[in-house]
Design a protein that fits this description.
The complex is a heterodimer of chains A (276) and B (254). Chain A has helices at residues 2-11, 15-40, 46-64, 68-89, 94-115, 121-128, 136-165, 167-172, 177-195, 204-218, 222-246, 251-272. Chain A has 276 residues and is an all-alpha fold. Chain B is globular and about 55 Å long. Classes of the chains: A mainly alpha (276), B alpha/beta (254).
Chain lengths: 276, 254
Protein backbone atom coordinates (compact mmCIF):
# COMPACT_ATOMS: atom_id res chain seq x y z
CA UNK A 1 0.00 0.00 0.00
CA UNK A 2 2.76 2.39 1.03
CA UNK A 3 4.54 1.57 -2.14
CA UNK A 4 1.55 2.52 -4.23
CA UNK A 5 1.14 5.81 -2.37
CA UNK A 6 4.79 6.66 -2.73
CA UNK A 7 4.82 5.87 -6.42
CA UNK A 8 1.67 7.96 -6.81
CA UNK A 9 3.43 10.85 -5.12
CA UNK A 10 6.41 10.23 -7.31
CA UNK A 11 4.16 10.48 -10.35
CA UNK A 12 3.30 14.07 -9.55
CA UNK A 13 6.95 15.01 -9.64
CA UNK A 14 7.19 14.23 -13.32
CA UNK A 15 6.23 17.04 -15.61
CA UNK A 16 5.00 14.69 -18.33
CA UNK A 17 2.53 13.14 -15.90
CA UNK A 18 1.17 16.55 -14.92
CA UNK A 19 0.88 17.46 -18.59
CA UNK A 20 -0.78 14.15 -19.39
CA UNK A 21 -3.27 14.67 -16.57
CA UNK A 22 -4.18 18.16 -17.74
CA UNK A 23 -4.37 17.36 -21.45
CA UNK A 24 -6.12 14.07 -20.73
CA UNK A 25 -8.78 15.70 -18.55
CA UNK A 26 -9.40 18.42 -21.11
CA UNK A 27 -9.78 15.84 -23.90
CA UNK A 28 -11.99 13.74 -21.63
CA UNK A 29 -14.23 16.72 -21.00
CA UNK A 30 -14.55 17.72 -24.65
CA UNK A 31 -14.94 14.22 -26.04
CA UNK A 32 -17.57 13.21 -23.51
CA UNK A 33 -19.70 16.29 -24.20
CA UNK A 34 -19.41 15.95 -27.98
CA UNK A 35 -19.98 12.21 -27.65
CA UNK A 36 -23.48 12.77 -26.32
CA UNK A 37 -24.53 14.53 -29.51
CA UNK A 38 -22.70 12.09 -31.76
CA UNK A 39 -24.10 9.00 -30.04
CA UNK A 40 -27.66 10.34 -30.01
CA UNK A 41 -27.44 11.29 -33.67
CA UNK A 42 -26.13 7.77 -34.41
CA UNK A 43 -22.86 9.25 -35.56
CA UNK A 44 -20.70 7.55 -32.92
CA UNK A 45 -18.37 6.03 -35.44
CA UNK A 46 -17.47 9.45 -36.77
CA UNK A 47 -14.81 9.46 -34.04
CA UNK A 48 -13.38 6.23 -35.35
CA UNK A 49 -13.45 7.47 -38.93
CA UNK A 50 -11.79 10.77 -38.13
CA UNK A 51 -9.17 9.01 -36.02
CA UNK A 52 -8.22 6.98 -39.08
CA UNK A 53 -8.04 10.15 -41.10
CA UNK A 54 -5.76 11.67 -38.52
CA UNK A 55 -3.52 8.61 -38.81
CA UNK A 56 -3.06 9.47 -42.49
CA UNK A 57 -2.42 13.12 -41.70
CA UNK A 58 0.18 12.21 -39.08
CA UNK A 59 1.95 10.03 -41.62
CA UNK A 60 1.82 12.96 -44.05
CA UNK A 61 3.17 15.39 -41.46
CA UNK A 62 6.03 13.07 -40.55
CA UNK A 63 6.85 12.67 -44.24
CA UNK A 64 6.87 16.44 -44.71
CA UNK A 65 8.74 16.88 -41.45
CA UNK A 66 6.17 19.32 -40.11
CA UNK A 67 4.10 19.42 -36.94
CA UNK A 68 1.42 16.70 -36.93
CA UNK A 69 -1.01 18.98 -35.11
CA UNK A 70 -0.86 21.76 -37.64
CA UNK A 71 -1.31 19.40 -40.58
CA UNK A 72 -3.91 17.20 -38.91
CA UNK A 73 -6.42 19.70 -37.54
CA UNK A 74 -7.41 21.35 -40.85
CA UNK A 75 -7.37 18.11 -42.83
CA UNK A 76 -9.44 16.23 -40.28
CA UNK A 77 -11.97 19.09 -40.16
CA UNK A 78 -12.25 18.88 -43.96
CA UNK A 79 -12.72 15.12 -43.73
CA UNK A 80 -15.52 15.57 -41.20
CA UNK A 81 -17.27 17.97 -43.60
CA UNK A 82 -16.81 15.41 -46.36
CA UNK A 83 -18.47 12.75 -44.21
CA UNK A 84 -21.41 15.08 -43.47
CA UNK A 85 -21.67 15.99 -47.15
CA UNK A 86 -21.61 12.36 -48.31
CA UNK A 87 -24.28 11.64 -45.76
CA UNK A 88 -26.50 14.53 -46.90
CA UNK A 89 -26.08 14.43 -50.65
CA UNK A 90 -25.11 11.03 -51.91
CA UNK A 91 -27.88 9.19 -50.10
CA UNK A 92 -25.26 7.25 -48.19
CA UNK A 93 -25.98 6.19 -44.65
CA UNK A 94 -23.78 7.87 -42.09
CA UNK A 95 -21.99 4.66 -41.19
CA UNK A 96 -21.21 3.84 -44.82
CA UNK A 97 -19.94 7.37 -45.42
CA UNK A 98 -17.63 7.04 -42.44
CA UNK A 99 -16.48 3.62 -43.65
CA UNK A 100 -15.49 5.00 -47.03
CA UNK A 101 -13.52 7.94 -45.70
CA UNK A 102 -11.91 5.94 -42.93
CA UNK A 103 -10.62 2.97 -44.95
CA UNK A 104 -9.41 5.26 -47.70
CA UNK A 105 -7.40 7.26 -45.15
CA UNK A 106 -5.81 4.24 -43.54
CA UNK A 107 -4.73 2.94 -46.95
CA UNK A 108 -3.38 6.37 -47.81
CA UNK A 109 -1.55 6.59 -44.47
CA UNK A 110 0.04 3.17 -44.89
CA UNK A 111 1.23 4.06 -48.39
CA UNK A 112 2.70 7.33 -47.12
CA UNK A 113 4.43 5.54 -44.27
CA UNK A 114 6.01 3.02 -46.59
CA UNK A 115 7.15 5.76 -48.98
CA UNK A 116 8.90 7.56 -46.13
CA UNK A 117 10.57 5.28 -43.65
CA UNK A 118 8.01 2.65 -42.79
CA UNK A 119 6.43 2.41 -39.36
CA UNK A 120 8.92 4.17 -37.17
CA UNK A 121 8.57 4.87 -33.47
CA UNK A 122 6.97 8.25 -34.06
CA UNK A 123 4.11 6.89 -36.10
CA UNK A 124 3.66 4.01 -33.71
CA UNK A 125 3.26 6.41 -30.78
CA UNK A 126 0.31 7.97 -32.60
CA UNK A 127 -1.34 4.60 -33.09
CA UNK A 128 -1.69 3.78 -29.42
CA UNK A 129 -0.94 7.12 -27.82
CA UNK A 130 2.01 8.06 -25.73
CA UNK A 131 1.82 10.48 -22.88
CA UNK A 132 5.59 10.87 -23.00
CA UNK A 133 5.41 12.92 -26.18
CA UNK A 134 2.78 15.48 -25.21
CA UNK A 135 4.10 18.87 -26.25
CA UNK A 136 3.48 22.32 -24.82
CA UNK A 137 1.47 23.07 -27.96
CA UNK A 138 -0.79 20.08 -27.17
CA UNK A 139 -1.20 21.43 -23.67
CA UNK A 140 -2.18 24.94 -24.75
CA UNK A 141 -4.45 23.74 -27.56
CA UNK A 142 -6.27 21.25 -25.38
CA UNK A 143 -7.01 23.88 -22.76
CA UNK A 144 -8.26 26.32 -25.42
CA UNK A 145 -10.29 23.56 -27.04
CA UNK A 146 -12.11 22.57 -23.90
CA UNK A 147 -12.96 26.18 -23.21
CA UNK A 148 -14.32 26.47 -26.76
CA UNK A 149 -16.35 23.27 -26.36
CA UNK A 150 -17.85 24.36 -23.05
CA UNK A 151 -18.66 27.88 -24.24
CA UNK A 152 -20.03 26.51 -27.52
CA UNK A 153 -22.18 24.03 -25.68
CA UNK A 154 -23.49 26.74 -23.39
CA UNK A 155 -24.36 29.15 -26.21
CA UNK A 156 -25.88 26.61 -28.60
CA UNK A 157 -27.24 24.20 -25.99
CA UNK A 158 -30.93 24.32 -26.92
CA UNK A 159 -30.36 24.29 -30.65
CA UNK A 160 -27.96 21.36 -30.34
CA UNK A 161 -30.42 19.39 -28.22
CA UNK A 162 -33.15 20.12 -30.76
CA UNK A 163 -31.00 18.88 -33.64
CA UNK A 164 -29.91 15.80 -31.71
CA UNK A 165 -33.48 14.92 -30.86
CA UNK A 166 -35.24 15.52 -34.16
CA UNK A 167 -33.46 17.09 -37.13
CA UNK A 168 -36.62 17.53 -39.16
CA UNK A 169 -38.48 19.35 -36.43
CA UNK A 170 -35.44 21.49 -35.69
CA UNK A 171 -35.33 22.47 -39.36
CA UNK A 172 -39.04 23.24 -39.40
CA UNK A 173 -38.80 25.69 -36.52
CA UNK A 174 -35.95 27.46 -38.25
CA UNK A 175 -32.82 26.12 -36.60
CA UNK A 176 -29.83 25.93 -38.92
CA UNK A 177 -29.34 22.17 -38.75
CA UNK A 178 -26.37 22.16 -41.10
CA UNK A 179 -24.58 24.78 -39.06
CA UNK A 180 -25.12 22.82 -35.83
CA UNK A 181 -23.81 19.64 -37.49
CA UNK A 182 -20.77 21.54 -38.71
CA UNK A 183 -20.08 22.96 -35.27
CA UNK A 184 -20.15 19.46 -33.80
CA UNK A 185 -17.94 18.18 -36.62
CA UNK A 186 -15.30 20.89 -36.16
CA UNK A 187 -15.09 20.46 -32.40
CA UNK A 188 -14.98 16.69 -32.76
CA UNK A 189 -12.16 16.90 -35.29
CA UNK A 190 -10.01 19.04 -33.03
CA UNK A 191 -10.75 16.82 -30.03
CA UNK A 192 -9.71 13.73 -31.94
CA UNK A 193 -6.47 15.16 -33.23
CA UNK A 194 -5.49 16.24 -29.71
CA UNK A 195 -6.81 13.03 -28.19
CA UNK A 196 -4.68 10.71 -30.28
CA UNK A 197 -1.64 11.92 -28.33
CA UNK A 198 -3.15 10.41 -25.20
CA UNK A 199 -4.98 7.25 -26.27
CA UNK A 200 -3.96 6.88 -29.92
CA UNK A 201 -5.85 6.65 -33.19
CA UNK A 202 -6.93 3.10 -32.47
CA UNK A 203 -8.67 3.93 -29.22
CA UNK A 204 -9.81 7.57 -29.40
CA UNK A 205 -13.34 6.70 -30.53
CA UNK A 206 -13.86 4.93 -27.21
CA UNK A 207 -13.39 8.30 -25.47
CA UNK A 208 -16.33 9.58 -27.48
CA UNK A 209 -18.64 6.60 -27.13
CA UNK A 210 -18.02 5.04 -23.72
CA UNK A 211 -18.75 7.92 -21.31
CA UNK A 212 -22.01 8.79 -23.07
CA UNK A 213 -23.29 5.25 -23.27
CA UNK A 214 -22.31 4.75 -19.64
CA UNK A 215 -24.16 7.91 -18.58
CA UNK A 216 -27.23 6.98 -20.63
CA UNK A 217 -27.71 3.88 -18.48
CA UNK A 218 -28.71 5.94 -15.45
CA UNK A 219 -29.45 9.50 -16.52
CA UNK A 220 -32.96 10.91 -16.41
CA UNK A 221 -32.50 14.24 -18.14
CA UNK A 222 -30.24 15.78 -20.73
CA UNK A 223 -28.28 17.90 -18.30
CA UNK A 224 -27.80 14.93 -16.02
CA UNK A 225 -26.42 12.97 -18.96
CA UNK A 226 -23.86 15.69 -19.63
CA UNK A 227 -22.78 15.85 -15.98
CA UNK A 228 -22.50 12.07 -15.61
CA UNK A 229 -20.70 11.64 -18.90
CA UNK A 230 -18.10 14.30 -18.05
CA UNK A 231 -17.54 12.86 -14.57
CA UNK A 232 -17.06 9.31 -15.81
CA UNK A 233 -14.78 10.43 -18.61
CA UNK A 234 -12.50 12.63 -16.50
CA UNK A 235 -12.38 10.04 -13.71
CA UNK A 236 -11.28 7.32 -16.12
CA UNK A 237 -8.54 9.44 -17.69
CA UNK A 238 -7.09 10.67 -14.39
CA UNK A 239 -7.22 7.23 -12.81
CA UNK A 240 -5.96 5.63 -16.00
CA UNK A 241 -2.94 7.89 -16.35
CA UNK A 242 -1.92 7.40 -12.69
CA UNK A 243 -2.59 3.67 -12.73
CA UNK A 244 -0.60 3.19 -15.90
CA UNK A 245 2.33 4.98 -14.29
CA UNK A 246 2.18 2.98 -11.05
CA UNK A 247 1.66 -0.40 -12.72
CA UNK A 248 3.75 0.38 -15.77
CA UNK A 249 0.93 -0.19 -18.25
CA UNK A 250 0.17 1.59 -21.53
CA UNK A 251 -1.98 4.58 -20.59
CA UNK A 252 -4.37 4.62 -23.56
CA UNK A 253 -5.41 1.03 -23.11
CA UNK A 254 -5.74 1.47 -19.34
CA UNK A 255 -8.10 4.41 -19.82
CA UNK A 256 -10.28 2.45 -22.21
CA UNK A 257 -10.44 -0.59 -19.92
CA UNK A 258 -11.47 1.67 -17.02
CA UNK A 259 -14.21 3.10 -19.22
CA UNK A 260 -15.40 -0.40 -19.98
CA UNK A 261 -15.48 -1.24 -16.26
CA UNK A 262 -17.48 1.92 -15.50
CA UNK A 263 -19.94 0.97 -18.24
CA UNK A 264 -20.34 -2.53 -16.79
CA UNK A 265 -20.99 -1.09 -13.31
CA UNK A 266 -23.59 1.44 -14.55
CA UNK A 267 -25.24 -1.20 -16.69
CA UNK A 268 -25.36 -3.54 -13.70
CA UNK A 269 -26.89 -0.88 -11.44
CA UNK A 270 -29.57 -0.19 -14.05
CA UNK A 271 -30.41 -3.86 -14.41
CA UNK A 272 -30.55 -4.51 -10.68
CA UNK A 273 -32.20 -1.49 -9.14
CA UNK A 274 -32.75 1.25 -11.63
CA UNK A 275 -35.06 1.64 -14.47
CA UNK A 276 -34.51 -1.93 -15.70
CA UNK B 1 -62.52 38.94 -44.47
CA UNK B 2 -58.93 39.47 -45.61
CA UNK B 3 -57.64 39.59 -42.06
CA UNK B 4 -59.11 36.20 -41.28
CA UNK B 5 -56.81 34.42 -43.66
CA UNK B 6 -53.89 32.64 -42.02
CA UNK B 7 -52.30 31.03 -45.05
CA UNK B 8 -52.66 31.50 -48.78
CA UNK B 9 -51.37 29.00 -51.33
CA UNK B 10 -51.32 30.33 -54.88
CA UNK B 11 -50.69 28.42 -58.12
CA UNK B 12 -48.45 26.03 -56.25
CA UNK B 13 -46.60 23.30 -58.11
CA UNK B 14 -44.06 21.07 -56.40
CA UNK B 15 -41.57 18.55 -57.71
CA UNK B 16 -39.89 15.60 -56.13
CA UNK B 17 -36.78 14.99 -58.18
CA UNK B 18 -38.01 15.31 -61.74
CA UNK B 19 -41.57 14.27 -61.10
CA UNK B 20 -44.18 16.90 -60.67
CA UNK B 21 -46.05 15.74 -57.59
CA UNK B 22 -48.45 18.63 -57.20
CA UNK B 23 -49.80 20.84 -59.94
CA UNK B 24 -51.42 24.21 -59.68
CA UNK B 25 -52.83 24.05 -56.16
CA UNK B 26 -54.78 27.04 -54.87
CA UNK B 27 -56.39 27.40 -51.46
CA UNK B 28 -56.74 29.64 -48.45
CA UNK B 29 -56.84 28.69 -44.80
CA UNK B 30 -59.00 30.86 -42.56
CA UNK B 31 -58.67 31.33 -38.84
CA UNK B 32 -60.53 28.63 -36.95
CA UNK B 33 -60.57 26.19 -39.88
CA UNK B 34 -60.17 22.49 -39.26
CA UNK B 35 -59.18 21.06 -42.62
CA UNK B 36 -58.78 17.35 -43.27
CA UNK B 37 -56.37 16.64 -46.13
CA UNK B 38 -56.99 13.26 -47.73
CA UNK B 39 -56.02 11.46 -50.90
CA UNK B 40 -54.55 8.17 -52.08
CA UNK B 41 -50.90 7.16 -51.51
CA UNK B 42 -48.57 9.24 -53.61
CA UNK B 43 -51.16 11.95 -54.09
CA UNK B 44 -48.83 14.65 -52.80
CA UNK B 45 -50.23 15.12 -49.28
CA UNK B 46 -46.88 14.83 -47.56
CA UNK B 47 -45.20 16.89 -50.29
CA UNK B 48 -47.71 19.68 -49.73
CA UNK B 49 -47.03 19.58 -45.98
CA UNK B 50 -43.28 19.69 -46.59
CA UNK B 51 -43.83 22.72 -48.78
CA UNK B 52 -45.92 24.43 -46.11
CA UNK B 53 -43.23 23.70 -43.54
CA UNK B 54 -40.49 25.04 -45.78
CA UNK B 55 -38.71 21.69 -46.02
CA UNK B 56 -39.13 21.48 -49.80
CA UNK B 57 -38.99 24.39 -52.25
CA UNK B 58 -41.95 25.33 -54.42
CA UNK B 59 -41.35 24.68 -58.11
CA UNK B 60 -43.87 27.35 -59.02
CA UNK B 61 -46.35 29.55 -57.23
CA UNK B 62 -46.18 30.68 -53.65
CA UNK B 63 -47.01 29.82 -50.08
CA UNK B 64 -47.72 32.87 -48.01
CA UNK B 65 -48.30 33.13 -44.27
CA UNK B 66 -50.33 36.25 -43.81
CA UNK B 67 -48.98 37.53 -40.51
CA UNK B 68 -45.68 39.18 -41.14
CA UNK B 69 -44.65 40.30 -37.67
CA UNK B 70 -41.30 39.11 -36.50
CA UNK B 71 -40.99 36.56 -33.76
CA UNK B 72 -44.32 34.81 -34.25
CA UNK B 73 -44.54 31.12 -34.87
CA UNK B 74 -46.46 30.58 -38.11
CA UNK B 75 -47.08 26.91 -37.60
CA UNK B 76 -46.68 24.14 -35.11
CA UNK B 77 -45.86 20.76 -36.55
CA UNK B 78 -46.61 17.27 -35.32
CA UNK B 79 -44.77 14.67 -37.38
CA UNK B 80 -46.09 11.34 -38.46
CA UNK B 81 -43.52 9.04 -36.96
CA UNK B 82 -42.71 8.51 -33.38
CA UNK B 83 -38.95 8.73 -33.45
CA UNK B 84 -37.24 5.46 -32.75
CA UNK B 85 -34.43 7.01 -30.75
CA UNK B 86 -36.90 8.61 -28.39
CA UNK B 87 -36.78 5.49 -26.28
CA UNK B 88 -33.13 6.14 -25.52
CA UNK B 89 -33.13 9.91 -25.69
CA UNK B 90 -32.21 11.17 -22.24
CA UNK B 91 -34.58 14.08 -21.91
CA UNK B 92 -37.43 14.98 -19.62
CA UNK B 93 -40.80 15.86 -21.10
CA UNK B 94 -40.27 19.50 -20.13
CA UNK B 95 -36.95 19.60 -21.99
CA UNK B 96 -38.54 18.17 -25.15
CA UNK B 97 -41.47 20.59 -25.05
CA UNK B 98 -39.01 23.46 -24.53
CA UNK B 99 -37.50 22.73 -27.95
CA UNK B 100 -40.75 24.04 -29.45
CA UNK B 101 -39.98 27.48 -28.04
CA UNK B 102 -36.54 28.12 -29.42
CA UNK B 103 -37.45 28.60 -33.09
CA UNK B 104 -38.44 32.23 -32.64
CA UNK B 105 -35.83 33.07 -30.02
CA UNK B 106 -32.80 35.18 -30.79
CA UNK B 107 -29.30 33.82 -30.15
CA UNK B 108 -28.46 32.53 -27.56
CA UNK B 109 -31.69 30.62 -27.32
CA UNK B 110 -31.92 30.29 -23.54
CA UNK B 111 -35.03 29.00 -21.80
CA UNK B 112 -36.19 31.68 -19.34
CA UNK B 113 -38.51 31.61 -16.39
CA UNK B 114 -41.53 32.70 -18.44
CA UNK B 115 -40.73 29.94 -20.94
CA UNK B 116 -40.95 27.40 -18.13
CA UNK B 117 -44.38 28.78 -17.29
CA UNK B 118 -45.41 28.45 -20.94
CA UNK B 119 -44.27 24.83 -20.91
CA UNK B 120 -46.29 24.10 -17.77
CA UNK B 121 -49.35 25.82 -19.20
CA UNK B 122 -49.36 23.77 -22.38
CA UNK B 123 -48.73 20.52 -20.50
CA UNK B 124 -51.62 21.36 -18.23
CA UNK B 125 -53.85 22.20 -21.19
CA UNK B 126 -53.13 18.80 -22.74
CA UNK B 127 -53.64 17.06 -19.36
CA UNK B 128 -50.08 15.76 -19.13
CA UNK B 129 -48.64 18.09 -16.50
CA UNK B 130 -48.01 15.09 -14.25
CA UNK B 131 -45.56 13.73 -16.85
CA UNK B 132 -43.40 16.86 -16.78
CA UNK B 133 -40.33 15.28 -15.20
CA UNK B 134 -40.63 11.86 -16.79
CA UNK B 135 -38.23 10.63 -19.40
CA UNK B 136 -39.83 10.71 -22.84
CA UNK B 137 -38.74 7.14 -23.52
CA UNK B 138 -40.61 5.84 -20.48
CA UNK B 139 -44.01 7.01 -21.78
CA UNK B 140 -46.62 5.15 -23.81
CA UNK B 141 -47.18 5.90 -27.48
CA UNK B 142 -50.25 8.02 -26.81
CA UNK B 143 -48.49 9.99 -24.08
CA UNK B 144 -45.47 10.57 -26.33
CA UNK B 145 -47.77 11.85 -29.04
CA UNK B 146 -49.29 14.33 -26.60
CA UNK B 147 -45.82 15.48 -25.60
CA UNK B 148 -44.97 16.09 -29.25
CA UNK B 149 -48.27 17.93 -29.64
CA UNK B 150 -47.28 20.10 -26.69
CA UNK B 151 -43.94 20.73 -28.39
CA UNK B 152 -45.82 21.84 -31.53
CA UNK B 153 -48.22 24.09 -29.60
CA UNK B 154 -46.07 25.60 -26.87
CA UNK B 155 -45.02 28.58 -28.97
CA UNK B 156 -48.62 29.54 -29.73
CA UNK B 157 -48.53 28.91 -33.47
CA UNK B 158 -51.14 30.46 -35.75
CA UNK B 159 -51.68 27.13 -37.47
CA UNK B 160 -51.25 23.55 -36.35
CA UNK B 161 -50.08 21.10 -39.02
CA UNK B 162 -50.54 17.42 -38.22
CA UNK B 163 -49.18 14.75 -40.57
CA UNK B 164 -50.92 11.42 -39.99
CA UNK B 165 -50.52 11.96 -36.26
CA UNK B 166 -52.23 8.77 -35.21
CA UNK B 167 -50.76 6.16 -37.52
CA UNK B 168 -48.68 4.69 -34.70
CA UNK B 169 -51.45 4.68 -32.10
CA UNK B 170 -53.99 2.03 -31.21
CA UNK B 171 -57.68 2.73 -31.96
CA UNK B 172 -58.74 3.81 -28.47
CA UNK B 173 -55.83 6.22 -28.07
CA UNK B 174 -56.39 7.43 -31.61
CA UNK B 175 -59.99 8.35 -30.84
CA UNK B 176 -58.91 10.22 -27.69
CA UNK B 177 -56.35 12.08 -29.70
CA UNK B 178 -58.88 13.18 -32.33
CA UNK B 179 -61.22 14.30 -29.53
CA UNK B 180 -58.45 16.44 -28.09
CA UNK B 181 -57.66 18.05 -31.45
CA UNK B 182 -61.36 18.73 -32.06
CA UNK B 183 -61.61 20.39 -28.65
CA UNK B 184 -58.63 22.62 -29.39
CA UNK B 185 -60.37 23.68 -32.57
CA UNK B 186 -63.84 24.18 -31.13
CA UNK B 187 -63.04 25.67 -27.73
CA UNK B 188 -59.92 27.66 -28.51
CA UNK B 189 -60.34 28.39 -32.20
CA UNK B 190 -57.04 26.75 -33.08
CA UNK B 191 -56.61 26.54 -36.86
CA UNK B 192 -55.75 23.00 -37.91
CA UNK B 193 -54.51 21.18 -41.00
CA UNK B 194 -54.65 17.43 -40.59
CA UNK B 195 -53.35 14.91 -43.10
CA UNK B 196 -54.85 11.46 -42.82
CA UNK B 197 -55.44 8.19 -44.60
CA UNK B 198 -58.32 7.59 -42.35
CA UNK B 199 -61.12 9.67 -43.83
CA UNK B 200 -63.76 7.85 -41.84
CA UNK B 201 -62.48 8.77 -38.42
CA UNK B 202 -61.38 12.35 -39.12
CA UNK B 203 -64.62 13.14 -40.95
CA UNK B 204 -66.38 13.24 -37.63
CA UNK B 205 -64.46 16.33 -36.57
CA UNK B 206 -63.23 18.35 -39.54
CA UNK B 207 -65.01 21.42 -40.83
CA UNK B 208 -63.52 21.36 -44.31
CA UNK B 209 -62.05 18.67 -46.50
CA UNK B 210 -59.32 18.79 -49.09
CA UNK B 211 -58.93 15.94 -51.53
CA UNK B 212 -55.57 15.77 -53.30
CA UNK B 213 -54.59 13.57 -56.19
CA UNK B 214 -51.57 15.29 -57.73
CA UNK B 215 -53.81 18.32 -57.95
CA UNK B 216 -56.51 19.82 -55.82
CA UNK B 217 -59.55 17.72 -56.62
CA UNK B 218 -61.81 19.09 -53.95
CA UNK B 219 -61.61 21.77 -51.30
CA UNK B 220 -64.59 22.95 -49.36
CA UNK B 221 -66.98 22.42 -46.48
CA UNK B 222 -67.42 18.97 -45.14
CA UNK B 223 -71.08 18.90 -46.15
CA UNK B 224 -70.24 19.80 -49.72
CA UNK B 225 -67.58 17.10 -49.70
CA UNK B 226 -70.26 14.60 -48.85
CA UNK B 227 -72.64 15.79 -51.53
CA UNK B 228 -70.06 16.45 -54.19
CA UNK B 229 -70.70 14.43 -57.30
CA UNK B 230 -67.00 14.73 -58.15
CA UNK B 231 -66.22 12.95 -54.93
CA UNK B 232 -68.88 10.36 -55.59
CA UNK B 233 -67.19 9.69 -58.89
CA UNK B 234 -63.89 9.22 -57.04
CA UNK B 235 -65.04 7.01 -54.25
CA UNK B 236 -68.21 5.39 -55.44
CA UNK B 237 -71.45 6.02 -53.65
CA UNK B 238 -71.04 3.49 -50.87
CA UNK B 239 -67.59 4.64 -49.81
CA UNK B 240 -68.60 8.27 -49.80
CA UNK B 241 -71.58 7.40 -47.72
CA UNK B 242 -69.28 5.68 -45.27
CA UNK B 243 -67.04 8.74 -44.82
CA UNK B 244 -70.04 10.81 -44.15
CA UNK B 245 -71.64 8.55 -41.61
CA UNK B 246 -71.81 11.26 -39.03
CA UNK B 247 -74.62 12.74 -41.08
CA UNK B 248 -76.71 9.67 -41.55
CA UNK B 249 -79.22 10.89 -38.98
CA UNK B 250 -79.54 14.25 -40.56
CA UNK B 251 -80.11 12.42 -43.83
CA UNK B 252 -77.91 14.82 -45.77
CA UNK B 253 -75.54 12.29 -47.14
CA UNK B 254 -77.60 9.30 -47.88
Amino acid sequence: MNQIVSSLLEAFQYQFIIKALIVGSMIALSSSVLGIFLVLKKFSMIGDGLAHVSFATVALALLLNSSPLLVSIPVVILASFLILKLNEKADLHGDAAIGLVSSFSVAFGVLLASVSSGFNVDLFSYLFGSILVISDLDLVLSIILSIVVIVGLFLFYNALVAVAHDEEFAGVIGIDVKLMNRIIAILTSITIVLGIRVVGTMLISSMIIFPTVTALQLSKSFKQTIALSISVSVFCVVTGVLLSFVLNLPSGATIVILNAICFAIFFGIKKIGGRG
Amino acid sequence: MESNIVLRVKDLSMRYGRNEVLTNVNFEVEKGDYIGIVGPNGSGKTTLIKGLLGLLPCAEGEIEYMEKEKGIQHFGYLPQKILVNDRLFPARVSEIVGIGLIGTKAFPKFIQKEDKEKIERILDRLSILHLKNKRLGDLSGGQQQRVLLARAMVNEPRLLILDEPTSALDPKVREDFYQLIAELNQKEGMTILLVSHDIGSIGKYTKKMMYLDKELVFFGDYERFCKSSDMTAYFGHAAQHQFCWRHTDESDCK
